[in-house]
UniProtKB/TrEMBL annotation:
Signal peptide: 1-22
Limits of the Thioredoxin domain: 7-203
Lineage of origin: Bacteria, Pseudomonadati, Pseudomonadota, Gammaproteobacteria, Pseudomonadales
Family, per entry: Belongs to the thioredoxin family. DsbA subfamily.
Name the record gives this protein: Thiol:disulfide interchange protein
InterPro entries in the cross-refs: DSBA-like_thioredoxin_dom, DsbA/DsbL, Thiol_disulfide_DsbA, Thioredoxin-like_sf, Thioredoxin_CS, Thioredoxin_domain
UniProt superkingdom: Bacteria
Organism, as annotated: Pseudomonas oryzihabitans
Length: 209
């Protein structure tokens, strides 16, 4: 199931998916307009969300391109990551991400977590295994475990699950602009083309203000 969820997103790209050029980016082609817009977390800004899973190889491969792009976004754009949770290890890794955000260390160790799973072949399937690894990255082990099991983190996990459902995602990585437009690497034609679609939709929302 998990292979289907993240590989389906890449199907169109691997089969010569249409490149995302500004003059032919269209709803129903490179992106889908949601029938029911989802409220954004920072009203007044144009929100860009990436839904991902730490165990997804395509998300891992997308990271360098996405990171470089997100660092250059203007002040009126808010970028955020949301973990996709389809059950099992997806939920475990999703709670890991939420915990790191709650502790304020996500930016510091996000890349290291990805590398641990995809380069070092660590499963990070239990809180204890996560805590042991994160301790090597300077994160307090006991604080991580207490935060991971906290009411606040579990509450945020449930909110993120509902958010992914509202976006009606079927795989990762998937992006959503301003709670209105959903697209992925398959529909866009590849990593670089996906960010061209994001830029197009950001401008679309900016012009509509």
């Amino acid at each position: 199931m998990r292979n289907l969820l993240f590989s389906a997103v890449f199907a169109a790209a691997s089969l010569f998916g249409a490149a995302a050029h500004a003059d032919d980016i269209q709803a129903g082609k490179q992106y889908t307009e949601l029938s029911s817009p989802v409220p954004v977390s920072e009203p007044g800004k144009i929100e860009v969300v990436e839904l991902f899973w730490y165990g997804c190889p395509h998300c891992y491969a997308f990271e360098p391109t996405l990171n470089a792009w997100s660092k250059k976004l203007p002040d009126d754009v808010a970028f955020k990551r949301v973990p996709a949770m389809f059950g099992g290890i997806w939920n475990v890794h999703g709670q890991l991400f939420v915990t790191l955000e709650a502790m304020g260390v996500e930016a510091k160790v996000h890349d290291a977590v990805f590398a641990a799973i995809h380069k070092e072949h660590k499963k990070l399937a239990t809180p204890e295994e996560m805590a042991d690894f994160l301790a090597t990255q300077g994160v307090d082990r006991d604080k991580f475990l207490s935060t991971y099991n906290s009411f606040a983190v579990k509450g945020q996990v449930e909110k993120d699950k509902k958010l992914a459902m509202a976006y009606q995602i079927t795989g990762v990585p998937t992006m959503v602009v301003n709670g209105k437009y959903r697209f992925d690497l398959g529909s866009s034609g590849g990593p670089d083309e996906t960010l061209k679609v994001a830029d197009f939709l950001i401008q679309k929302e900016r012009a509509a203000k």
